[in-house]
Write a structure and sequence with these properties.
The chain contains four helices and no strands. By secondary structure, the protein is mostly helical.
Length: about 90
């Protein structure tokens, strides 16, 4: 197996295990063999999006540590809106 493909397959397997949802396992178990490459590509996209989100989260956290807990200017604090919706 090509190393990059192995890493992708391993990442997909770890992501599927982490999600542990019955629907996720069912998706893999019931997918016809010919459709597995497309399903794998969708999971690769999910993994890449999650990894990008982690990187953005780390960047925001670093900014907050340098600026007294403030969010970067391109972000909007929605804490109050969330708290109001939970109270309702």
């Amino acid at each position: 197996m090509v190393p990059a493909l192995r890493q992708t397959a391993d990442a997909a397997a770890h992501a599927a295990c982490a999600l542990r949802g019955a629907a996720t396992r069912k998706q893999f178990n019931l997918t016809p063999i010919g459709e597995l490459p497309a399903l794998g590509e969708r999971w690769v996209k999910v993994i890449e999006d999650l990894q990008a989100g982690v990187a953005r989260g780390r960047e925001v956290r670093a900014y907050q540590q340098e600026h007294g807990g403030q969010l970067p200017p391109q972000y909007t604090d929605v804490t109050a809106s969330i708290m109001e919706s939970r109270a309702a």
